[in-house]
Amino acid sequence: PNVSQVGLIGDETGIIKFVIWAKSGKGEVEEGKSYLFRNVVTDSFQGRMQVNINRNSEIVEIDEDIKLPPREIEVVGALVAIQQNSGLIQRCTLCKRTMTKGICPIHGKVEGYDDLRIKGVLDDGENFYEIILNEDNIKVLTGIDLEKAKQIAAERLDRNAVLSELKSKLLGRYLKVKGTRGGRYLLVSEVELVGGVEKSEI
Fold first, then answer.
1. Helix/strand/coil (H/E/C) assignment for every residue in 34-95
2. Rounded Cα–Cα distance for residues 80 and 122 (Å)
3. What CA–CA distance (Å, rounded) separates 44 from 65?
4. For the chain, which ranges sit under pLDDT 50?
């Protein structure tokens, strides 16, 4: 109820989330139109920068075509890290956020469902990219799908065993990923293993 509108705005330098707060009294903006945002406030929410529009802000529609960076990019690099909250995770049935020990950060102790994902870091030699691989991506790379992951966890009586298995199969491997920039992360739509020196061979 405190939020009037949430979306993404961008120019040639990048794309960022914006929030128009209800108390600001500002009207909503339309997708595809160009605007000048004045006197906005930046802050960080869940580790991602965002722009906030409050009552001191001003939104002016302008008749100008703004160039955006390509949202879909292709990167080839080594998977150098797999972050926390990867592997066999639980999501809240209400908001789909990741749960920790059966607790949703928004809804508290609620029913959850299993999901398989990797939050990783890809290094192409010049830049680092934080990527998210979903169940389909992981199955393409390792042959492990959600059912197989649940089986591994059950056999070893440890959900973390799935993460260990994925790390052993993927860390140090070279991946070719195609995906969409979504704030901090690159959301991967297509992925494949490519040739390259694995850590174990160095």
1. EEEEECCEEEEECCEEEEEECCCCEEEEECCCCCCCCCEEEEEEEEEEECCCCEEEEEECCC
2. 6
3. 28
4. 197-202
